[in-house]
Queue: 4 jobs
Job 1
Amino acid sequence: MNQPIAIDELVSVAQGEAMGELDAPMMAIVLSSDQSYDLPINSLETEADKARWALILRAAREHVEADAVAVLYPAWTTIKSKREKAVEREEDADAPSPIDTLFVQLHTRDRIYWRGFEQIRDPRHQRIIGFKRIGALSSDYDREEAPSVAAWLNTLFEPLPDEGEETEVDRELADLLEEPEVSAALYPRQMRSMH
C-alpha cells in the first residue's frame, strides 16, 4: 500500500462523508488488500469506549488480514498561535474559541499519518460545506513516537499468539466479532446494502 496516496484518498472519503451534514461522522475503515470495511464508531468519550473500540478494530483488522486502519472523527479543537500565547502570558486575554475540526488518521504497522481540517459551515444552515487543512494538526509519526492521544490504538498491530495458543485477548476479540455492529460492518461497502 502506498501510504501517502492512501491518506489522501481517506481524506477525500472523510470529507465526502461529511459534506452537507450537520456533523462529520465518527468511523473507522479497515483497509485490506481486497476491500475496505467501514465501522461506524458510537463514542470515544471515555477510556472504556476507547478500550472497547481498540479491541473491535484489532479484531476486524486481524479477521480480514488488513495492513492499515483509518480512524475519522470530528472534535472541538483550540489552536493558539505563538503571538496569542505571548499575549496570554502578558494579560489574561479571552481564550481563543475552539473550532470544529475533522481528524483523519491512517494507522499502519510502522507509521501513523494524521491530518486535521477545520470544518467550514454554511452560516445559515450550519451544514458542512468545505474543509480547510490545518498544518499544525497534520503530521506523520513513527508508531513508537505517536502522541498520547493515539495511545488507545497501540495494540492494533500486536503480533498474534503462537499457532493454537489462545489468550484472554483472543477470547475478547472473538466475542466482539459476534456483536451485530461489528459483524455487519465487516461486509464490503457494496455488499452491506444487501444485508
Job 2
Amino acid sequence: MTLIKKLLAISVGAASLTLAISTEAQAAVIGKNIWYQFFFEDVGVAASSCVGLCEPDADGISEYAPDSPWEFVVDGGGAFLTIQDAFLGGDQFSAYNNGVLLGKTSTVPTGGDCSNDLLACISDPEISQGKFFLAAGSYSLDIFAEVSPFNVGAAFFRVDPIPEPTTILGTLAFSALGAGAWLKRRKKIA
C-alpha cells in the first residue's frame, strides 16, 4: 500500500472516530412550554428517551423526549421546571443541572395509579411531582430515579418561562388604556 493510501485510510478512520465521539457527546436541545415524556429504569440511571419504550399519554399533550441530557436556555425572568410521575405511584426523581442538584420530587406511597393520563396524574396527590425555579442561564438537565419500586417507568417534564415584569406591566398598561377608552366612549354614548 502506498504512503498516500495509508494516510488516506488513517484520515478517514480518524474522521469517523471524531464524528462518532462528537455525536455521542451532543445533548438534545428542548423547547419550552412542552410536556416531554421520558423513560427511567433503576435508581441512579439517567432518564432517557421514550421512543419505542413508552405508551403515549392519553391526553395527547406531550411528546417523547430525546435522549438526555436536555439542554435549554432560560431568559431573564427565570422559569419553572416541572417533573411529573405517571402510571404507578411510588417513584421519586432528582433533577440535576450539569451535575448540580436542582431538587427532588415529592415522596409518595407506592400504590397510586393514574395510568398514562397526564392530566389525572397532575391532580393526583399520590403521584410524585416537583416544581423547581430556574434562574436565567444555560441548562443541561438530567433526571434520575431516586426511588423506583418497579425498576422501570415513564414520567414527564416541562420548562415554563416566567414572563418578565416589563411584559406583565406592558400588558397591564395596555389593558388599562383599553378600559379607559371603553369608559370614555361609554360616557359619550350616554
Job 3
Amino acid sequence: MEVLLSGLNSYLGKRAMSNLSKEDFNVHGIVRDLDLFKSRLFEKITATLDKVDLLRKGKEFDSFKIDSGIGLAIYITHVPTLGEYVNLNLELITLRNFIELTKLNGGPSNCLYCTAYG
C-alpha cells in the first residue's frame, strides 16, 4: 500500500517513516527542505522522500505524483501549539493543501490527522 506521510521533522514523523516502511507499505515522505531534513537525520532513510512545500505549494507541489494512488494519508502536525492564532492558521493551510495533494494523487477521502505535541 502507498502511504503519504507529512510532519517528518517530529519524533512521531520520524518513527512512522522508519517503522511503516516494511513489506506491506511503500512510504512517501514529504518535507519542505529535503537537504536540511537529510542533514539532521541520524538513522537510515527507509522511505521515498520528496520536497513538497505544503505552505507555499509551488512547482514541487504541482509535479508531485504517486502513479499507483495513495492508500493511506497521514498528516502529523507541523506546529508545536495550536493555541496561537498564527500557528493555527499555518496548520489549517498546510492541512488543506495536504488533503488537496492526497486527492490529486487518487488518495482516500479521509486522512489520519496526528498531533505530536502535548
Job 4
Amino acid sequence: MIGFAKVQPNFVRLPTFRNFMDALDDTDKKLLRLLQQDAKLTTKELAAQLGLTLSPVYERIKRLEGLGFIKQYVAVLDKGMLGQPITTFCQVSMRYHDKAFIDKFEEEVQKLEEVQECYHMAGQVDFLLKIHVGSLSDYHDFVKYKLSQIENIGVLNSTFVLKEIKHNLGYHIPE
C-alpha cells in the first residue's frame, strides 16, 4: 500500500471585508457616502457637511484613495441620450474550459465597446455580459460580427431589459 503525505496548501490569508471596514471610522464612512452621491462636491463643501476643516478632509480622501476604497471618479451618462437605449444581458457558455480559452475570451471581450460589464460566473453559464446598443438590429450585428467571432463560444443566451427598476451605482456602507 502506498502512503500519501498530507500536503498543506500554501494559502495567503487576505483580510476579510470586516478587516477593511475596521480601517474606517464614522467620518470616513460619511465621507464615502457623500462622495458616492456627488463626487463633484468640493473639499470645502465636504468639510462643511462633516464638521471638519479642509486639511483633514483632504487627507482623509487621499488616505481612502491610497487604501483603494476610492477607485476612480466618473460622470454617469444617460444611455438614451447617447443613442444606446437597449440593455441586454448575454449569458455565454464556453465549449471548452481550459485556461487558454478562458484567458482569450477575457482578452477579446475587453475590446468590445458595446460590453459595459463582464463577469466570470460559477454555475450553468461561464460569463455574463451587460451590453448597450442602439437597437435590436445593432444587437444582431454585434452578436453576428463581433461576439460570435470569439473562439470557443458554445452557447449565447440573450435577455433584454424592458424597464429599468433600480440602478444604483453606489454601494451600501454599513454603519
